[in-house]
Amino acid sequence: MCSSDLIDTERMRLRRLTATDLDWLATLHGDRRVMRFIDDGEPVPLAVTAAQTLPAILREYDELPDGLGCYAATLVANGQPLGWLALRPPFSVGVEHEPPGSAELGYRMLPQAWGHGYATEGAKALLRRAFTELGVPRAVATTMSANTASRRVLERAGMRLARTFLAQWPGYLEEIGRAHV
What we know:
With 181 residues, this protein is of the alpha+beta class. It has helices spanning 22-29, 32-35, 46-63, 118-132, 148-156, 173-176; strands at 6-8, 12-16, 69-75, 81-88, 103-109, 139-140, 165-166, 179-180. It is globular. The longest helix is centred in the first third of the chain and has 18 residues, at 46-63.
């Protein structure tokens, strides 16, 4: 592991995921509360996380520039998984046309980690690295406007609202609203 693979914050260690992270990753992606505002709003089955999600994350380490990718967030004190944070080239609807070299911040935290500031702490650490070490000219993130907790994380991490846009979502997500920020 090179130094860009580890980031320590006051309470957390951000590190590359490995195959041994499957159990908690499947719990995270399989939790309806976590997935409520993501993709189709449905939990991801363990088999899909094992066969598609985790292998895709691991592949990114070879495909993306150094320092980009998905980081497992764990407690420094005991290694307990909290979720993941990522810095990747922009790909979400609404940010896919950002300037070259830009990065998109993303995160998913286990419900027991909610409300303790871990997502904000990790987001600040990744953004600091993006601008100071990786030379990223612009960082972006998106969330549904109805996802007030995620909006607060982004604001506390130092991001500001650039615009609101509409996205097409299936099923019940239409009832929540199509507006994204």
